[in-house]
């Protein structure tokens, strides 16, 4: 993956993932279980905006076909210089891991209520990390 056009190694990438904040239009309604996932930049390989848009639409279509509830949000670096469109998906842990693999995503975020975890689905050599409160990492647009 590249952030600000600079290539990242696995350790730098894993550290960057742990700093993610979330941009939403309204305070999220938390499900008992959910994952935050996107289809952008599979396996950390940067794609064009158009390719990422098509991948996101494919993920949305997949979720709708399976009747899985989801809402839009963005994952971002703390300074907001890097952002990726994402979905907050109401699903159990197994479905979240399956979707991450299907859409070649290194590390989805997992929510158990407000507890946020980073899961290394396709990254080796790192462990799941508890990131604290999801709502404390949320930034509501226009507030």
Please explain how this structure is put together:
With 143 residues, the chain is α+β, with helices and mostly antiparallel strands. The chain has one domain. The protein has helices at 10-18, 49-65, 93-102; strands at 2-3, 6-7, 21-24, 33-37, 70-76, 83-89, 109-112, 115-118, 129-133, 138-140. The strands form two sheets. An eight-stranded mixed β-sheet has the order 9-8-7-4-6-5-3-10, covered by helices on one side. Strands 1-2 form a two-stranded antiparallel ribbon. Strand 5 and strand 6 (83-89) form a beta hairpin.
Strand order of the largest sheet: 9-8-7-4-6-5-3-10
Structural class determined from secondary elements: alpha+beta
Which radius of gyration do the C-alpha atoms yield? 14 Å
Strand tally: 10
Beta-strand residue fraction: 25-35%
Shape verdict: globular
Low-confidence stretches: 1-7
């Amino acid at each position: 993956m590249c952030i600000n056009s600079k290539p990242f190694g696995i350790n730098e990438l894993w550290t960057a993932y742990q700093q993610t904040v979330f941009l939403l239009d309204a305070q999220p309604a938390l499900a008992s279980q959910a994952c935050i996932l996107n289809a952008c930049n599979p396996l950390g390989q940067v794609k064009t905006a158009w390719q990422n848009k098509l991948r996101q639409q494919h993920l949305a279509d997949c979720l709708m076909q399976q009747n899985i509830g989801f809402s839009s949000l963005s994952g971002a670096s703390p300074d907001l210089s890097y952002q990726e469109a994402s979905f907050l998906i109401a699903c159990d842990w197994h479905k979240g891991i399956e979707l991450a693999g299907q859409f070649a995503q290194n590390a989805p975020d997992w929510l158990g209520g407000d507890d946020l975890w980073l899961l290394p689905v396709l990254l080796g050599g790192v462990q799941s990390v508890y990131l604290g409160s999801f709502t404390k990492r949320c930034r509501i647009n226009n507030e």
